[in-house]
Amino acid sequence: MDYIADLHTHSPYSRATSPEGTLSGLAGWARVKGIHVIGTGDFTHPGWFSQLREQLTPAEPGFFKLKAEAILPALPQATPVALPSRFLLTAEISSIYKRHGAVRKVHNLLYVPDFASAERINSVLAGIGNIESDGRPILGLDSRDLLEILLEKAPEGFLVPAHIWTPWFSLFGSRSGFNTIEECYGDLSPHVFALETGLSSDPDMNLLIPALDRFALISNSDCHS
Question: What is the DSSP string of 105-141?
Fold first, then answer.
């Protein structure tokens, strides 16, 4: 089955976001743009997580749909396509920590199949730092350890390094990242199977790097509006 997915979005609880970035708002714009699967973003934030549980209901395994079919129109003059929009539970973590004598700043995307998995992860992260201050929490948590938490609390979930070439906040960031996947995730590197290249990244250039050959390369909107 062919489908279009945007698996990196944010809620109104994240910085620099629109108050109209609700589930209904995201679904409305998805219909205009022809997007079938949308990441919820920010499931780590208690306020947003509560809304997710209230407004979403399970659809196919690992996917959710809005309980209320009344999806807000994105634009008055637009006639949206009646797509069966689905949501996937997602979150982004900003990890800032020291490794090998240098400060690392890496953003990672988390994907989980159900609310129970998300709740278990949230419980652990709440004991590490403040997950209420931002929809994309900043934690002093090593990326490798974040992946370990995900694997333990949500075995069917997965982690994707976010916008891997962004200079300041990414896996390969020239200012605060690493040179290899293995340097960042250590013994858990085999569990990383996809990388988000980011919209400013040239797909053809990514394909010239042999170290990326084993990974699925994805791009998302990182939607803040």
Answer: EEEEEEEESSHHHHHHHHHHHHTTS-SSS-SS-EE--
